[in-house]
Amino acid sequence: MEPCHRTVMNKKFIASIACIAVACMILVVALYINTFGTNRSLEHATWGMFGDYFGGILNPVFALGAFLGVLWSLDMQTKQLKQLSLDKQGGEILVVVKDIDTRIGELLMTSVGLIGQDDLFIHHMVSESERGASTLKNSDSYIKFVSTAKQSGTLIEASIRELRNQIIHMQNFLARYPQVSSDSYAPIVEYYINKTRRIIPMLHEIERLPNSVFDFFMTERARKNSASVPRNTHRQPQNIPQPMRNGYE
Question: Mind telling me which residue stretches traverse the membrane in this protein (predicted)?
Fold first, then answer.
């Protein structure tokens, strides 16, 4: 739709310029007739004087218009080049973000133990964190998971540390994605913010995330439906999304 819209705008712009040019010529002729009358003449000198008058007024006007047109064209080309550069940068960032997102999904499938004969994975602990398992003290598996994740050298601790690093990298690249405006992100960035935000409370309880990372995912603008972070955090978000049904998604 955008190329068609630009074509229509270009046609309207050209038509407007043509109308202005014709209006200028009519105005000059009308001014000449009003000043010198409409006496017909077959003398070359008279027509030469009319040509000098006509061209002397319109030539500077058209020259100025042509100069302004060149400046406008250069400005448009500069904006287009800048936009192409931003689009390229955004595309490169998205490639990295998708790779990080895939890695996060893999880490969330790390086993953290068993309940009966059923495996528990990190993404189950994310769901437990979302419903306030630590605060309510009603989830022994979550409390044990947090305790184990804080013990250096365990498999769970290594996975959580890697998950934490990936979240930090995710924030770093999402923050560099070109913004739609000064106070809003592109929809694709909002998607990854909303998707990743659900992991933040659990990670923040195990080990504090940098303030810039926590604020990026849990600010009021980005967390319209988020919930409370565990009570040992420095800020308390108000609403957390409903527990995920299928892992990271």
Answer: 12-33, 53-74
Q: Do residues 76 and 150 both lie within one domain?
A: no
Residue type, 90: G
pLDDT digits (tens, 9 = 90+) for 145-168: 888 899 888 889 999 999 999 999
Beta carbons within 8 Å of 176's beta carbon, 6+ residues apart:
89, 93
* Residues of the domain holding 77: 2-86
User: Residue type at 205?
Assistant: E
CA distances from 91 to 180, 191, 196, 216 (A): 15, 15, 20, 21
**223 in a domain, yes or no?**
no
Return the ∠ at Cα 247 (arms to 243 and 249), rounded to 5°: 75
d(CA 8, CA 3) in angstroms, rounded, equals: 9
Residues in the chain where the model's pLDDT stays below 70: 1-9, 36, 116, 133-138, 179-184, 220-249
pTM above 0.85, yes or no: no
Q: How many residues does this entry show for the chain?
A: 249
